Amino acid sequence: MIGEKRRIFRLVLILVVASLLTGTIASLILYRTALAEKSSLLETEVQNLARLIQAVAKFDRGTFKDVARATKATLSQVEDAFKSQNPVGETGEIMMGRAEDKKIVIFLRYRDHQINQNLILPHDKARSEAMARALQGESGVGQFPDLNGEQVLAAYTYIPELKTGLEIKIAMSEIIKPYLISGAAIAIASAVVILICIYLFVRISRPVLAELEKHRMLTEAVVESAQDMIITTDEIGLVRLANPATLDTLGFVENEILARDFALLFDPADDATMETIGRIRDDSFVNRPDNVVSLKKKTGESFPASITSGRRMVDDKPIVTIVLHDLTALKESEDTVRHLTHKMIEIKDEEQDKISRELHDTLGTNLVWLKLQAQQLTQNMPDRKTEAAALIAGIDETIEMTRSLSHSLSPIAIEKLGLATMLERLIERAARVTSASVTLKHENLDVKFSARLTFHIFRIVQEALNNALRHSGAKNISVLCSLARGRLSLVIADDGEGFKTDQKPSGLGLALIAERVRLLKGSLRIDSAPKRGTEVTIELAV
User: Fold this and answer.
1) What's the confidence (pLDDT) of residue 542?
2) Cα separation of 158 and 249, whole Å?
3) Torsion angles phi and psi, residue 528, rounded to 5
4) Among the four residues 182, 350, 514, 515, which has the most C-beta atoms within 10 Å?
5) pLDDT digits (tens, 9 = 90+) for 465-513
6) Strands 292-296, 140-145: pairing kind
7) Cβ neighbours of residue 454 under 8 Å, at least 6 residues apart?
8) What pTM, to 2 d.p., does this model score?
9) CA–CA–CA angle 196, 201, 202 (5° rounding)
């Protein structure tokens, strides 16, 4: 009984630790995803805001001959705009600063609809690193200590027209807090459920466990207590021994199996299973972790199981022991993961569609209105035609970029413009944001594909391209998409760092690609190795 209590205590401890790890890992995955998205949003916001301030500054320079007066007018407009700006979270803050005599002057700080007092900081002060980088002409996003020593996520850039740095930041504690709470809730809930189940299990099964302990001492411990199915056959394949797990799982009684050919327990309709049985018979079977066969219950129901086999000589006769592990639960877990991945794709696509509409309806409209205002100003200032034309051209370029981004996020736009056009725009946009060579080759894509196929193919290329740009460090990235004989072939290749394909990737990109391919009933092959690049190949019937 002491040994039983120790085993139960160890089981409780293991399951509680597992529940804590599950909550921690789930929260960590969600946190990393949210942090990456928040970083991207902050970087986009600081770049957009910088471009807007730059445009206003150029306009004011064209309006006022005196540079100081033009700068003052620009900053006055920026300050007024900040007062009506929605705050960036509860702890978000927008700052503008300039370098003066080896010091950083933070002359504009906006937080919670308040314009705060100026600050003068040493240029090398660690708590002003983001602003210092911005004043050196750099742009980016990262985690830095705040002016108060608090860790923040800060996006920064430089505004050359005003010779100032721009920084948008938000406290890391605000980003982390909800995931800490959710992780703790998941871990506590899991631990409580596990403890309740164990308690009930112990209360109900204790008499049975005591009886099993008596039988265990009278029988072969390993075979009788094994949860895996264990079968022993003689030299011609007749069953000599089947452990209780085999009988219970397959629904047979002992006399229905003993002295009969072991092939009775396998699904004869599965060719791979029959091939495995043949190899076991002629002693050519090689144990591997991925060996899977299809077993058949007495009721006729088939289910997957992993298989290992060993052969020993007993009394100069070969005895074969076969161990089978039921993979039904694993398959159900994989189905659950696949379902969650599918839901993640749906949520992601819905959010991108919402963003697309917002870009088109709000930002696009505002940019068109701004262009009309600029054109009207041009008519009133004939002596500023050159500057006005440059301003209008910049607005036109921004409108086009906004329209292109909106189209790439909208399922309706993707279907309307067609796969070839959307892939060309995607490659053009990728080429503008990276120093790598990004090329596209497509053949026979002038066919009208279904909206579902077009949308998922575009998203697959987009996800694969993002993975290559973010993680591979590649100098060359190529995309090949061709249609031939009713099959669509898609190959995305790079010459980057590569990875070991037998190791599970840390991100979700490949999982999302695999799920989209599965939804299209296609095949996916990933060839990669460290320092040898990556090639993603997808084949689809259309």
Assistant:
1) 78
2) 68
3) -160, 155
4) 515
5) 888 888 888 889 998 988 888 888 889 899 988 888 776 655 566 777 8
6) unpaired
7) 414, 415, 418, 419, 422
8) 0.36
9) 100
Of the candidates 181, 137, 224, 150, the one whose C-alpha atom is nearest the C-alpha of residue 24 is: 181
CA distances from 136 to 108, 156, 169, 234, 434 (A): 18, 11, 18, 79, 21
Class of residue 23 by CB neighbours under 10 A (exposed 0-12, middle 13-18, buried 19+): buried
Share of the chain above pLDDT 70, in %: 71
Q: Which residues contact 399 (CB under 8 A, 6 or more apart)?
A: 364, 367, 368, 371
The residue with tokens 């007024």 is 80
Distances, alpha carbon 180 to alpha carbons 29, 102, 151, 163, 340, in Å: 12, 40, 16, 40, 21
| Residue 243, beta-bridge partner list | none
Asked if 490 contacts 461 with a C-beta cutoff of 8 angstroms, the reply is: yes
Give the separation between CA 272 and CA 294, rounded to whole angstroms.
9
Residue type for position 316: D
Among 134, 209, 202, which Cα is nearest to 166's? 134
Q: Across-strand partners of 293?
A: 305
524-527 contact pairs (CB < 8 A, 24+): 526/501, 527/501
